[in-house]
């Protein structure tokens, strides 16, 4: 009798169970999709303040901004001596209104005009000197980085610094000269020069003086009268100033230091200013004379730069080219010292505002 189907299934069940158990022990291959990489972090959106910080922290921009601050600080510190220097410079032979010692001249200025006399022309001077100094320091940094440095942080030769500074001086003068000539007019118009007549009750301001010069003295060319001796003096002055400062600063930096102390920076600034001013001072006198060459009553009408040198030496001697140098040297030490120190402090602060610190270059 043959086995029924259920009996056959029962007989085969042990083998089937064993086969299933063995199959369950075999490794199984599971195909899986690799995980996707995490999405990149969303770029942080920069605010207007972030963009501003990144901009002003650029070395050339930082030098530009810090230069403007340095100019305003340095000129305000020495404003009385700056005005006194101009009053000395513009006196021709035989004019005795300010033929005094520095101390007596300052007392005279105080008695006649008070505190306003000390600050006369300083507002215009600051309006002029802020862009002038900003362009000077900024363009020096620009020319140095783009035309003289072989690589970032390269040390320039003294001749390269002199040339770079001269180019910066010419650039700054060209942009700001009309404000300089107005500052000279404002400085002398309230002084007690008998040749100028009685002082008016209400003195014209900066913009009114600019308009009067443009209207009455020859238009646009009147605003650039005297720029030739100015450029001839400013180019070597600024070049000598930068060259001497960086040399003295490096000399005063102790081994292992990146920057000298504030006192050493003040000394370097004072020395650089004194050297540069002494070497180029006659050009400054010629500049002032030409700026008021058309003002009646001042006693001179020069035809050209050589004519001015000839007349001054013939009538006033060599010392005529150095009139006002004493108050100028008295002011140059605190002026240039405060200028360089405030420039470096402000520049270093602005550079630290950037995303990463840039190497400080001189």
UniProtKB/TrEMBL annotation:
**Which ranges does the UniProt record give for the Solcar repeats?**
58-146, 156-251, 260-349
Q: Name one GO biological process term.
A: transmembrane transport
Q: Where is the composition biased (Low complexity)?
A: 11-33
Q: Which GO terms describe its cellular component?
A: mitochondrial inner membrane
Signal peptide location: none
The job of this chain, per UniProt, is described as: Mitochondrial transporter that mediates uptake of thiamine pyrophosphate (ThPP) into mitochondria.
Write the protein's name: Mitochondrial thiamine pyrophosphate carrier 1
Has the keyword Transport been applied to this entry?
A: yes
Q: Which organism is it from?
A: Apodospora peruviana
Q: Where in the cell is it found?
A: Mitochondrion inner membrane
Q: Which Pfam family is one of this chain's hits?
A: Mito_carr
Kindly list the GO molecular function terms attached to this UniProt entry: metal ion binding
